[in-house]
Write a structure and sequence with these properties.
Blueprint (H helix, E strand, L loop, with lengths): L1 E7 L23 E7 L4 H6 L1 H12 L4 E8 L29 H16 L2
Parallel strand pairs: 2-3
Antiparallel strand pairs: 1-2
């Protein structure tokens, strides 16, 4: 229902020549803004849980990596479809069913065996 778009870091803190921050409120590295894509129907639920999402991300990294969350309402792409490699058609079972007297039954058994070997 969500997918991260990007992590936008603010500009670095400017320091004066004496080593103190030019901005008195700046302490350490400022946190980033996580831009999160959410399905339109789930965006409100994500917004309600934004504080918890930020806390869990920061707990994972061990420092305040994310300071705020920006939500974009847009469809989240579906997972890519995993396709099986195409199988080559199996050879009919002509010599295995050669002993069957009825021609229609023999052909049907040969097609059935080919389908079983092909994995259908």
């Amino acid at each position: 229902m969500t997918a991260p778009e990007r992590l936008k870091w603010p500009r670095p803190v400017e320091y004066a020549e004496d080593g103190t921050a030019a901005n008195a409120n700046a302490k350490g590295r400022p946190g980033a803004t996580l831009v999160l894509r959410a399905d339109g129907s789930q965006a409100l639920a994500v917004q309600y849980g934004a504080r918890q999402i930020i806390e869990r991300i920061n707990a994972y990294f061990g420092y305040a990596a994310v300071a705020e969350l920006r939500i974009i309402q847009a469809p989240v792409g579906e997972a890519p479809v995993v396709r099986r490699p195409a199988r080559r058609p199996a050879e009919p079972l002509t010599h295995e069913v050669a002993g069957v007297a009825d021609a229609g039954l023999r052909d049907a058994l040969a097609r059935l065996g080919a389908g079983v070997r092909a994995g259908r």
